[in-house]
Structures are given as structure tokens and as C-alpha cells.
Design goal:
globular, about 20% strand, 11 strands, 11 helices, Rossmann fold, binds nicotinamide-adenine-dinucleotide, alpha/beta, six-stranded parallel sheet, about 40% helix, three-stranded antiparallel sheet, about 280 residues, single chain, binds zinc ion
């Protein structure tokens, strides 16, 4: 490993060892070491979903709420497939390392993620300390919506992989088809209530942690939808705060912050070993 990377690992380990507060921010790259695809550019999306390449559709076309009105089985083809994939995925060991740091060091922690896959909850993170900025695939809402209600996604999906159509569909109690409670592209019907509540919890958390030594640990957040990168930078602007950005490719950081050009699991594992040496 190049010396500069090892220096970054040591700096990150020291910052976490001295921290009182840990804010974990993550994008699709956090799931890659659990075997999940990210959607880096059209090529990345088509590699994960070759059937959409045949149909000439990119991520922004597949993730469009229009399908749930015009062709619900097609809308659920993409999201039903992902629901089943995320349900059977086991979060990688890095999630466990993070939980171990939090409990063994008595850190106050909060997770902010653009992922809709529920992997932090699955790994045992406290539900009341998670903000899912783009919503969750494990929750449903009405397509209209007829009301602001959000409820658990308990549908079993079977997808015809040739046509990318779902054979089953969940429904709202008004009779309309339900859709995932996820903020899609060109989406004016997303019900934001659940995410708004999570956002208020984050604001109260930040207020309560004022003056504490803080680390913002970002993993796998891309530049195509830069919400998480922007949030990490904003959150780490307060004094006594460091930003550690883990990303094998898009890893530029503001001056003075720590950049780790590594995969998430590898970086967490190395930081863990470096902390043990301190
Ligand atoms: N699992 C999910 O819930 C999921 C999956 C794909 C996309 N999305 C959503 O799509 C939108 C675009 O997502 P994005 O910008 O996060 O993703 P992206 O697919 O555009 O980028 C992923 C980022 O992760 C990095 N990466 C790849 N492998 C990694 C690894 N092993 N460790 C660490 N980093 C790695 C890439 O270099 C890239 O910067 C977001 O809203 C995102 O939430 C969600
Ligand atoms: Zn309804």
C-alpha cells in the first residue's frame, strides 16, 4: 500500500479514536462489498440490469414514477427485483466493525444514507438514528397519493426477467397500485413524511452534539447524485470535525480532510487494525 494511503488510514484511526460523535454517511458504494451493484453511469446500470440496455432505458428512465401510473407491472419490475435482492443480501463485515467502534468506544452515532436498501437496519443499527434521504424500498405509499400514509412493503415479488415485469402488485387501500416510498427522478408524488421525521431527528442529534469532537465517515457516495457528498461536507464544516472520504475512484476532498482511495470494507478493516495499534 502506498505510504500516503497508510498515512490516511492512521489519520482516520486517530480521528475516530479521539472522537465523541460519529456521523456515518453512505451512498451506493457501501453496498458493493456486500455484492450489491452501484449504478455508476449508464454502463454501470446496464451491467447490473442488462435487460434495460436491450430496452434502451437508463437508471433515470427506470426510476421514474410515471411507470406506476402507466404500466405498474413494469414499474415494479425494477423495484420488485431490487426489493427481493436487498432482502436476501447480508451486510458485509464493515457494518459490524462500525457497530463495534460505536459500542466499545461509547460513540454517539447517526447514519445518513442515500441508499434505499435498508442495509444499516439489517446490520442492527438503531432505526431512530438513521436518515434515509431518498426513502426506503421496504416502505410503500399510494401512487396518487390519496393520503400521506406510508406502510411496510410485505409484497413477494416475482419478476419476468425478459420483460422486466412483476407478476404481483401491492395495492393501496383506495384500490390504486402502491409504489415504493422512494424519491425517484421527476417525482412530484413522493410522500416525504417518514424521511422528514428522520431529518428532524438528525437535526436534534446535531444540536445535542454541539462542541463534541466529531468524525464524518463517508463511504461509497458518488458524484452523479451528489446529495450525500454535499451533506458530508456541510456536516464536517463545524469546528472539531474531520471528514474521512472512502471511495476507490471519486475521492477528492476539501483541503485538510482525509481521503482514502479504497473499497469500504478494506478501508474499515485497515482503520480497525490501525486503531488497535494506537
Ligand atoms: N443500494 C441502494 O440502495 C442503491 C444502489 C444504487 C443506487 N442507489 C441510489 O442511486 C443514486 C446514485 O447513487 P450513488 O451516487 O450513491 O451511486 P453511484 O452508483 O453513482 O456511485 C457509487 C460510488 O461508490 C463508489 N464505489 C464503488 N465501489 C465501492 C466500494 N467497494 N467501496 C466504496 N465505494 C465504492 C464509486 O466509485 C462511486 O463513487 C443515489 O440516490 C443512491 O442512493 C441506491
Ligand atoms: Zn391510495
Amino acid at each position: 500500500m502506498p505510504e500516503t494511503v497508510q498515512r490516511g488510514i492512521d489519520e482516520a484511526a486517530r480521528a475516530i479514536a479521539e472522537a465523541q460523535t460519529l456521523i456515518i454517511t453512505s451512498g451506493a458504494g457501501m453496498g458493493v462489498d456486500s455484492g450489491l451493484p452501484d449504478f455508476r453511469g449508464p454502463q454501470g446500470f446496464w451491467k447490473a440490469y442488462p435487460m434495460y440496455e436491450n430496452l434502451g432505458l437508463g437508471f433515470t428512465d427506470a426510476a421514474n414514477p410515471l411507470h406506476f401510473r402507466q404500466d405498474p407491472p413494469f414499474g415494479w419490475g425494477f423495484y420488485g427485483h431490487r426489493t427481493e435482492l436487498y432482502r436476501r443480501t447480508i451486510p458485509h463485515q464493515g457494518f459490524e466493525l462500525l457497530r463495534h467502534w460505536i459500542s466499545s468506544r461509547g460513540l454517539e452515532a447517526f447514519v445518513v444514507t442515500s441508499n434505499v436498501d435498508g442495509q444499516f437496519q439489517k446490520a442492527g443499527f438503531d432505526e431512530s438514528r438513521i436518515l434515509e434521504v431518498h426513502g426506503s424500498i421496504h416502505h410503500l405509499q399510494c401512487t396518487a397519493p390519496c393520503e400521506e400514509r406510508i406502510w411496510p412493503n410485505e409484497e413477494d415479488f416475482q419478476i419476468d426477467l425478459k420483460s422486466m415485469r412483476s407478476r404481483t402488485l401491492p395495492h393501496c387501500r383506495c384500490g390504486l397500485v402502491a409504489r415504493p416510498n422512494i424519491l425517484m427522478f421527476a417525482d412530484s408524488s413522493w410522500v416525504s413524511g417518514r424521511t422528514d421525521t428522520q431529518q428532524r431527528r438528525l437535526e436534534a442529534f446535531i444540536e445535542g452534539q454541539r462542541g463534541a469532537r466529531q468524525v464524518v465517515l463517508e463511504m461509497g457516495a458518488g458524484t452523479s447524485v451528489p446529495t450525500i457528498r454535499w451533506m458530508s461536507e456541510q456536516l464536517s464544516k463545524v469546528s472539531s470535525s474531520s471528514l474521512v472520504r472512502i471511495n476507490p475512484r471519486e475521492n477528492e476532498v476539501p483541503p485538510g480532510q482525509i481521503r482514502l482511495p479504497l473499497r469500504a470494507l478494506d478501508a474499515l478493516d485497515r482503520i480497525d487494525r490501525a486503531m488497535a495499534r494506537l
